[in-house]
Each structure stands twice: as C-alpha cells, then as structure tokens.
Amino acid sequence: MKNFYQPVPTLLALSLTALMSVPAYAVSSGNVLTDGTNVAYRDSRVVFDEIQHSFLVDNSQPNTAPTASQPQSLADVASSPAWRKLLLLDKKGKPTAKDPHFLLAGGDTRAELDAIIKAIDERDDKVLCAFPARTHYVAEQLGLVLDDSGCDEFHAWAKQYDARALSLTFADEHPNSLGSAFSHVMIKADTEQSLASGRDDDAFAINYTVARDKADGEAEASTRSLVGGYAGVMEFYDYDEKRDVYLLDDERDIWEYRLNLTTAEVAQIMRHVWETKDLKRPYFFTHDNCASEILRLIDVVRGSELREAVGKVVVPNEVARVLTDKGLVRDTKYLPSKSSTAQAVQNGTQGVVTSPSNPAHASPTHRIGLSVGYDDSYHGTRTGDNDGTTFGLSLRSAYHDVLDRPVGVRQYLDVEMLSLDVRYDDRLKVDKATVFSTRSYNPTNTAKAHNGMAWGQHARLMQVMDGSDGDNDDHMVFDVRLEKGKSWTLGQGELGTGRLADTLCYVFGGYGGQVGHINKGYRVGAGVNVGCIHHASDKVRVMGELALPVWYHHNQGETRSTYVQPALNVGVQYDISPTYALRLTGKAERGRDDTHEQVALAVLRYF
C-alpha cells in the first residue's frame, strides 16, 4: 500500500482545546476549537459558518455521539463504541495495541474511564497530556471541567498544525512495487490557510505505513509485512511533496475524497492522532494497514463500525467505496499522474484529462465462486460411473485478476493474494492455494511503459499433471515462478482520458520450480507464455494464453527427465452487476501420451 521508498517523517499537529458554554473549559486560544468557525466544502469553495463549539449533527450522516449539554451516565460512556475505539479495543474488548503504557487499567472500559475521570479531577498532567482525546471525550460526555493548560508540548504541536478539514487521498496501484501493488491511502489535512488559498502547499499529509528495514529487498519486505514482521508508524509530510511523489515519480493517479466531518470531529481525530502517533503497533499488509487505520480514526468520532464493515482483509479502494456508500464523502477530485496525462495526449486529448474509473465505484475485492464443469481425467481413471462432472468452490481475499471488472483499478491489474480453490471430482481436493501471484505488463508502446519491462512473480500450492510418464494423476506441488517479458496494446485509448486501448498482448519468459508428490519429488523448468487480454465491452472481458514450459528432473529410469508440457488457457467473464458475474474457463494440457481437458462455468459473488 505504501511505496516502501518513502522517508520516515517528522511532526504534525492539530488544533485542540474548546471553549464551550457547558461545560467551561480551561483552554489556550488561536486554534480550531476556539476560533468560532466550521468549514463546509462545496463545489471547490470554502464557506466559513459561525458555530457553537460542540459535536455538530451532520445532515448526511447523523452523529450519534451525545453532546456536552446531555451528560451521560458512567455506564453509557464506558460501554460506548467511541470509548472502546479510543482505547484501541476490538469488539471483544481485546487490546489491538501491545504498548503497556497506552492503557491505564488493563483495558477494562469502566476502569479506564474511572482513571481518566480521576486524572481530570486531580489535573494529572501526565495523563491529560498523553491522552487529550480521551480526556476531551469524557469531559464532554460527563459535563466535567477540563484544564489541560499544563500540556505545553501538546499545545505547541497543535498550534503548529491546525487541521480544519480532512480528505481521503487514494493513490492507485503501483505498477512495479509489490509493497504498493494494492494501492495506498493517506489523509490530507487542510488548514485554514489551505482552505482559503486552495493551495496544497499549505496542507499536510498524515500517513500510516510500515517501518520497513531498508536493508530488506522487495520480496522479503512484502513477506514480512504479510506476517506482521514490521511496526506501523505514523508519518507527517507537506502534502504537496507527498502528492508529487505519487503523481510524478511513481506515476500513480490520485483521487481526493473530502470527508463529511465537522471541525469538532476533525479536532478530536487529531487529538487521537497525538495519542497514537508514537505507538509501536505491528503492521499487517492485509488488515492492520494504511486503509484500516483511516477507518478506525473515523470510527473514533462517529462511534461507528466502519473498520469491521470491510471484513478481515482491508484494501484501499474498499475504504473509498465504504466511505462513499456511508455518505461520508462530500466532494471528489481526480488528479492524473504524469503518465496518464501523457497517455491522454497520445489518445488525442487536448483539454482536461478525466477518468471514468473512480475507485469508490470498484467492485469489492473479496470474491466467492461456485462452479460446475467437466474434466476428462480423474487421478488416472477414465472409466466408471463418473461422467466427468466436477464441482468447485473458490474463495479470494484480494485483489484482482485480468478478467475481473476493471472499474476503479489500474487497467490490466493482475494481483491475487490469499486465495483458495477447492474442487470435487471423484474426491474432494484443494485445486489451488495462492499465496501471491502478480503480473505487471507495462506496455511498451504507451506512455505507461515505465521501464518497458513486463514482469511477474508467483508463489502458490497447486495441482499439476506430471508429464514425465503415462500416469498423469493430479499432484499437489508448491510452485514458485519468476517472469520477465514485453507487452503491447492494440488500438486507441479513450479520448479525454489517460486510459489504454482495450486489447493487450504479451510474451513472458520465465523460470521456476515445483516441489511435491511428483516424479523424483521435484522439477525445475523454464519456458514462454504468450497471451492476449481483450475488453470486448464494459461488461465482457476475454483472455487466452499459451504456455510452453520445458521441465527437467534427474532420472535414470524409463520415464522422461526432460520434456515439454504445453498448455492452453482461455477465459471469458460477463458482469451481471458490480457484485455478480459469470465466468467460463477452459484448459487443455498435453501430458506424455494424451491431452487433459477441463472446462468450468462459475457464478462469482464479490463482497
């Protein structure tokens, strides 16, 4: 999600401390909680409205948090979702942060509340200054007087950076980085100056990312990020500098989604950022990442369950989609990258560059499929009562293959991770279990050629046919393969956009190995894959690929030690809706003495 080559940051800040009629707060002046303004964003203009300083009710998304004029009971506050979110507890009350200093009373919500009330009553600056979001929330809910005037470090931080409005910034999938293959999201924080001037250099970025060991290579770093081998860190940048890294250096399009949050809610989010910015939490590429952190921050002020709504695996375009669906997006802005702008010119565009592929309109990335098909071979037996009918179940956690609906993702995106395919023919078996499989095509005749080299990396468990002898049973192996090659588009991209043409063809040369229950227990190989992908319409995609691998294993018997095992794969998908599709696939693979043929029709559900 984040490009691993980003620097580790410095400071950020927020404006904090409110002057309210009930209760009366001891506050410092000159920030968002004391200047008497609320920011509303419409049609790229900024409107400042006089308001009272309280949690405002948003017409498009009701704020269920009670106001200070309605003091709550201790039990209500202790059991509230917002309080649990502030403590970084999951639905079951389990701490999600391992830092022992973050919790004052072991994570019991009532005991934590009592500790904060005691700190407010005794003006315990150690607690008040470490947890301004908690103390503000408790004081507001219970009608307590809060005096945090002794928190000089926090107030200096808040004064330096005065966030008035927040936007979700979505940078699309990086074409050449495994660490950013699933895109990336961060927060754009607008100040009073940036809202008034419209200039990004007056705004700043809040970025939750992985603290990667710079000595680790891409593959090792990606693997460690999958298993929580790195800590997550909160970084703060000048927004325009971070924006230009994505647009110019990485050549990734950006979408900005102005969030439908009040200035009071923004201030509370920033207080919580102060509380959590130095925590050493494990970063997981799949679920505790840049995307989940943004949803969690919004949950802090809305008392909602946005983080839970997206499932176990959280990817950035899911955040854009969920926030849009929940009415939390006030305005959307598209920023084309350097390569998209150049491609638009190549397409004949002379005016403004647009994009029809808003990530908020993408299909969900989780997918389940049920299939029925025909297979002419069952573990070496071709006789008996079975007529060749097969049944399949597929589960995919993320992300996208070349037949999936392409709206809201980079064109010809081919990244799959943590998927499982189970099949029943004359017995139940795992057909394929993918750890990760990705290809980046970089078509050489386009402005999006990047380095002009197509490449692929694959690691998966899969059933294979052993072509070394006549016993062509299915065998489970662990397959690893690396590829490099070239690709080209055929035709013209859409006028007015930086989109590529609807047809892409490619050739890959690759090498790898398989270990498992096959002849000699292993085989190594190299070969060529040639194929094409065609977007026939907005709802139909087709593909075909011919693989010509040459396999070798040491052998002194009658079976072959070196052999070619060609295979042809074809597929077509029709989208019924953004969440349902039909997919027809077929495969023919040559063994030693025969050809193995398969065909299957699947109903896919995206969720």
TrEMBL record:
InterPro entries: DUF7840, DUF7843, Lnb_N
Keyword line: Signal
Region (Disordered), start-end ranges: 339-364
Segments forming domain Lnb N-terminal periplasmic: 153-307
Polar residues bias (residue ranges): 339-360
Domain named DUF7840: residues: 357-606
Keyword check for Signal: yes
Transmembrane segments: none
Source superkingdom: Bacteria
DUF7843 domain ranges (all copies): 77-141
Signal peptide positions (record): 1-26
Protein name: Uncharacterized protein
Source organism: Moraxella caprae
Organism ancestry: Bacteria, Pseudomonadati, Pseudomonadota, Gammaproteobacteria, Moraxellales
